[in-house]
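cron nightly-structures :: item 1 of 1
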Amino acid sequence: MPFPKEFLWGGAVAANQIEGAWNTGGKGWSVSDVATYKPGIDVKNYEAHISISGDAVKKAMADTDDTYYPKRRGIDFYHHYKEDLALFAEMGFKVFRLSIAWTRLFPTGEEDTPNSDGLAFYEDVFKEMQRLDIEPLVTLSHDEMPLSLCLKYNGWTDRRVIDLFVRFCRTCFAQYGKYVKYWLTFNEVDGILRHPFITAGILPDLCGEQNETACCYQALHHQFVAAGMVTKLCHQMIPGSKMGCMLTKLMTYPRTCAPEDVAATQKKNLENMFYTDVMVFGKYPPLILRDLEKRGIHIQSEPKDFQIIREGTVDFISFSYYMSMTESVDPHAERTPGNAVLGVKNPYLTSSDWGWQVDPIGLRISLIELYDRYNKPLFIVENGIGSKDILEEDGSVHDSYRIDYFRRHFQEMEKAIDDGVELMGYTSWAPIDLVSASTSQMSKRYGFIYVDQDDLGHGTLKRAKKDSFYWYQKVIRSNGEDLT
């Protein structure tokens, strides 16, 4: 069965990884503005790259240089957005996923009125997208929380942040509802336990008597409540709008058929699905509630919280998929990195330059699993491979490895559609080189478009089309029929 006629092909980015202009137009500090590039640390040592403390934040704020804070500069989409959107249109994009930086509209998160310069910037972006006939898919929270709310409230652990976020979203709906039909609440909402600072503004040294894990679950509950409120608000303010949730799909297989490995894998997969269970079914899964009880984690809630969650369920499920992993109870099993996780290495798969295991069939399994569980439309909003590209003297980049990666994943998507999965669209991560989320590198390149900038910010920022640019253009033009 071919891809649906109205299938949405495109690409995905985040404001904090592309926009730059971190101190321009009245923008305030965000959590990503203090994320550092650490050249002396192995790129596979994820924990070392994301470690943060109150002292580290203060040190970063005292340093106005962006050399080791690459997300402050991004790829300067702020000044290049027309050029970049034109390139996306040339590829034939039907949809472009981007985020609205909270701190560009509300610099500290607590202002009574939004920043006019920030409002105007996104207005211009959406107008240009409308002119180019590219549908926006907007993420409301994508690792861009106001730093002020982290330092003042320890991020989402404080219930007061709910109302501040809802005010930000209300502003977005009122200002951009005429341009935007498709919305997402929290990017990779499950990431709160893997990178609590970036996802929810939680600093370990501000957790007090609570341990960091307990803070994460409390913050997560507040995000669930906020998501329910925002989803309902979106439907009220923008007729015909669709709100989705967004999950990191961490496909995990048992390392062996030993029952112990199977049980450990089952637990891991149930934990991964927990987040979408809440946002689709409108309630906490009983097994998760029991697990929290056994661990002594008590979530403080208000009487109407669960009604809000129940009445604010999503219209579709979106997810990221990059790799799969295995699980084993064997303490000596070799582990390898993935999307902000460590998993047991699968000997049947190859790995990217950063150790992420490439598994196209796992995408088909994920699609079938998610659709069977939720019976709601699915949207793949992140999928891609970070690689070390070589820019030739003539400005070309021969990235056959990237084409091969996408071709194999698209073939598995076709099979899932043929099996009956309702798939709305696909946005690659990322259509243009950007600053990577985990290690804050430019040399970890994802795009169909090369950006001339290195890890320390040196370069012309000139854009160049890779071989994959022309291949993806052909795929979109043929609606997925021509993958040669």
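cron nightly-structures :: done
The mean pLDDT is 96.
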